[in-house]
Design a protein that fits this description.
365 residues; alpha/beta; Rossmann fold; 2 domains; four-stranded antiparallel beta sheet; 11 helices; 18% strand; globular; disordered C terminus
């Protein structure tokens, strides 16, 4: 069976949700699908909404993100986002709604300035929520988790046409011929061996093998140009020895969609916390906010712990029961583990003195 890829139309106001749109785009791509966004299409002689409709007609799913703005009005008094939503419904395109659940905390410059605009937004939210499941979010991480869960659910419950490589789509006659060939293959499998090609997986390191951990410096700015920063260091540790630090400092939350709860990881927060904790194993000063691990190190650790069964790629909790038991035993043992060693660089705190103020020279007394 060949995996299908689906086109997902991302609909929202633009200026106030740039970062959110970019994050959702990345999530759709990571799910193996194609994001469709108006900002990537050049202006044409077609009327703007005619272009939008032509794109929506070719999409498998419609994803609506609602923040603090209703959007600019078209000639008919509706925003383009509102019109996109209604058109998607008219074409029976499955709709997923993502609503900012902390709209009272949205900066004022990203909200509607008039009472009329606020009223239109509330009416749009009510219409978009009527008769369908919506998901609320307050951070970009929560939004990404909600989008991923919604996509998985939509594919399972509302399968769409999707897209496959042209050379992977067979005609009915070719499929029938293939079926006959497979039947013939089955007859001779015992004589000539298994006909399927199995890819050899790269070997998995043992738990007491060493892994290199790159610590990157982080700067904390002070007044008058002063500040504090960490230093670069490459540490060496065993995979098992690194796990207690990773376990204790991974930052994750849960999100639910249609009764299914899944965890998602706050990668930036995790890189900061894990890096500071590794540095703290070797430093005599407070390393918080001064070190972080890089993305490559984080991904490598995650991948290893999933492969050896200490983590799962999806579910309500990132860590398996054996992993949680290991962490409990580690705490019972007083947190004593394998201390990393410095392979390159150093674990230092660098302080930059603030520039000398000339205020006294300027006061005439």
């Amino acid at each position: 069976m060949h995996d299908k890829r689906y086109s997902v139309f991302i609909s929202s106001t633009f200026e106030d949700l740039k970062d959110e749109r970019r994050a959702v785009q990345d999530t759709v791509i990571s799910a193996g699908d194609f994001p469709v966004q108006m900002e990537y299409f050049p202006a044409t002689d077609e009327a703007a909404f005619d272009l939008i409709k032509s794109l929506l007609d070719k999409c498998d799913y419609y994803l609506l993100i609602i923040g603090g703005r209703y959007g600019s009005l078209d000639a008919d008094g509706l925003s383009f986002t509102h019109k996109e939503f209604r058109y998607a419904l008219s074409r029976n395109i499955p709709v997923m709604v993502m609503l900012n659940g902390a709209r009272g905390k949205i900066p004022v410059e990203r909200t509607e300035a008039t009472d009329a605009g606020k009223q239109r937004l509330e009416e749009f939210i009510a219409e978009a929520s009527n008769g369908r499941t919506r998901k609320t979010w307050s951070t970009i991480g929560e939004l990404q988790a909600a989008v991923l869960a919604a996509l998985i659910h939509a594919k399972q419950t509302k399968p769409a046409t999707g897209w496959m490589r042209g050379d992977a789509v067979a005609s009915a006659d070719a499929l029938e011929e293939l079926t006959e060939v497979l039947k013939e293959n089955a007859k001779y499998r015992d004589a000539i061996g298994h006909l399927e090609v199995e890819l050899a997986l790269p070997p998995l390191p043992a738990g007491d093998d060493h892994v290199e951990i790159d610590l990157m410096p982080v700067s904390v700015q002070g007044g008058y140009g002063g500040g504090t920063s960490g230093t670069y260091a490459r540490l060496g540790c065993t995979w098992v020895g690194a796990f207690p630090v990773f376990y204790s400092n991974l930052k994750w939350r849960t999100s639910d969609w249609d009764g299914e709860t899944n965890y998602y990881i706050e990668e930036d927060e995790s890189c900061d916390a894990i890096g500071a904790a590794f540095a703290g194993e070797l430093a005599s000063f407070d390393t918080e906010h001064l070190f972080r691990i890089n993305k490559a190190t984080f991904d490598r650790l995650c991948s290893y712990y999933i492969e050896v069964g200490l983590m799962v790629s999806q579910g309500e909790h990132p860590f398996t029961e054996p992993a949680q038991r290991f962490a409990r035993r580690h705490r019972i043992n007083g947190g004593k583990g394998v201390v990393p060693i410095i392979l390159e660089g150093s674990i230092e705190r660098k302080v930059t003195a603030p520039a000398k103020s000339t205020l006294d020279d300027e006061i005439p007394f």
